From TrEMBL:
<feature type="transmembrane region" description="Helical">
    <location>
        <begin position="21"/>
        <end position="40"/>
    </location>
</feature>
<dbReference type="GO" id="GO:0140359">
    <property type="term" value="F:ABC-type transporter activity"/>
</dbReference>
<feature type="transmembrane region" description="Helical">
    <location>
        <begin position="346"/>
        <end position="366"/>
    </location>
</feature>
<keyword id="KW-1133">Transmembrane helix</keyword>
<feature type="transmembrane region" description="Helical">
    <location>
        <begin position="229"/>
        <end position="253"/>
    </location>
</feature>
<dbReference type="InterPro" id="IPR013525">
    <property type="entry name" value="ABC2_TM"/>
</dbReference>
<feature type="transmembrane region" description="Helical">
    <location>
        <begin position="291"/>
        <end position="310"/>
    </location>
</feature>
<keyword id="KW-0812">Transmembrane</keyword>
<dbReference type="GO" id="GO:0005886">
    <property type="term" value="C:plasma membrane"/>
</dbReference>
<protein>
    <submittedName>
        <fullName>ABC transporter permease</fullName>
    </submittedName>
</protein>
<keyword id="KW-1003">Cell membrane</keyword>
<dbReference type="InterPro" id="IPR051449">
    <property type="entry name" value="ABC-2_transporter_component"/>
</dbReference>
<feature type="domain" description="ABC transmembrane type-2">
    <location>
        <begin position="136"/>
        <end position="371"/>
    </location>
</feature>
<keyword id="KW-0472">Membrane</keyword>
<keyword id="KW-0813">Transport</keyword>
<comment type="similarity">
    <text>Belongs to the ABC-2 integral membrane protein family.</text>
</comment>
<dbReference type="InterPro" id="IPR047817">
    <property type="entry name" value="ABC2_TM_bact-type"/>
</dbReference>
């Protein structure tokens, strides 16, 4: 313990000596957690719409007003021909074209049906699908209201109608930030812990101090623990700051027990720090460590379930995600914060991440001993 205490004192002095790194550790995650949830949003609004109205009737004007009043569409063009609307799409000034044909009102009243044409710019597939679905739902609702106006009042009993009442669990107001903020916090904790630990031993190699350490009677596991514990503590500090920002800025209060959340985050930090130290034992320069960690971080983030649900991935990707510790942290963060899950609920994920922590740290100790 005395040896580890001296190593910790050395590490903390090095950390606090570099004021810029300390500010980055504390300020950067807070700023990112404030900014990123505002941008990382799958809610599609302000869809640019171009309307080609060949009818110019009262019904076509009511339809256009209903579409623009929905809050999802922004009218950027009211054209007289489809080619003019296409020019807006080609110059990225319109995402959808709604073409209303001649005789729209007449055919709807007399014949009871009329076709509309919707052209969707599908370069952005998500925006195209959601925009087309929104517009289709609005047209359907408009059609139902027109039918009620045109149908004569019945003298008989109204036909039976099935009504569906929905209840939104865990996020009643459907706020997208409640879903994204826990996942983004998990990514920030991963990046801080992974990059700092990956650069740690390599920095000793570049400065030449690793040779001085190797000639001392310090044991290898003491050396790894001395590198691990300071950043484990800093990772918990970043995690705490993230929870405070989530509460103060977004009003997110964990429904579950904070001790359960901190327990899992602490075990996860042991795993990701061990992975960073393992990378550091393989590299000789900080540049090599940065590139390797960047490669793995991209996989961790994109296959961690933050932006794409793991259940929607192909089978081979689901298998890969099981070896991704970040996916477990994102899942547990959402379980505890949004669903109020307890210790028994997260026990499978906790055991899995704990096994990863043991394997990665043991491998880092063994590999450092082998190479030095």
């Amino acid at each position: 313990m005395r040896t580890i205490r001296f190593l910790l004192e050395k590490e903390f002095r090095q950390i606090f000596r570099n004021k810029a790194i300390l500010l980055l550790i504390m300020v950067m995650p807070v700023m990112q957690l404030i900014i990123l949830p505002l941008a990382a949003n799958y809610e599609v609004k302000n869809i640019n719409l171009s309307v080609v109205d060949h009818d110019h009737s009262s019904y076509s004007q009511k339809l256009i007003s209903k579409v623009t009043a929905s809050g999802y569409f922004k009218l950027t063009g009211y054209n007289s021909s489809f080619n003019e609307g296409m020019k807006l799409v080609e110059t990225d000034n319109a995402d959808l074209i709604l073409e209303i044909p001649h005789g729209f009102e007449r055919n709807l009243v007399r014949e009871g049906h009329q076709h509309l044409f919707i052209a969707v710019n599908a370069i952005n597939g998500v925006k195209a699908n959601l925009g087309g679905a929104y517009l289709g739902a609005i047209v359907k609702d408009f059609n139902n209201s027109i039918r009620l106006q045109l149908l004569p009042s019945s003298k008989f009993n109204e036909p039976a109608v099935i009504e569906v009442t929905s209840s939104n669990l865990f996020n009643p107001q459907l706020k997208y930030k409640f879903f994204m903020v826990p996942g983004i916090l998990a990514i920030l904790v991963t990046m801080i812990g992974g990059f700092l630990s990956a650069l740690n031993i390599v920095k000793e190699k570049e400065f030449g101090t690793i040779e001085q350490i190797n000639v001392t009677p310090i044991k290898k596991h003491h050396f790894i623990l001395g590198k691990l514990i300071p950043f484990w503590m800093l990772g918990n500090v970043v995690f705490t700051l993230g929870l405070l920002v989530s509460w103060l800025i977004y009003g997110i209060v964990p429904l579950g027990n904070l001790l359960v959340l901190y327990l899992f985050a602490s075990v996860f930090l042991l795993a990701i720090l061990g992975f960073g130290l393992l990378v550091s034992t393989f590299c000789d320069t900080q540049q090599q460590a940065m590139f390797i960690m960047f490669f793995f971080m991209m996989i961790f983030i994109l296959m961690g379930g933050l932006f794409t649900s793991i259940d929607s991935m192909p089978e081979w990707a689901k298998i890969v995600s099981r070896f991704n510790p970040v996916s477990y942290l994102i899942e547990v963060m959402r379980m505890v914060i949004l669903k109020g899950s307890g210790f028994k609920d997260i026990l499978p994920q906790l055991v899995t991440v704990g096994i990863y922590a043991l394997i990665l740290n043991a491998w880092a100790i063994w590999n450092y001993k082998k190479r030095n």
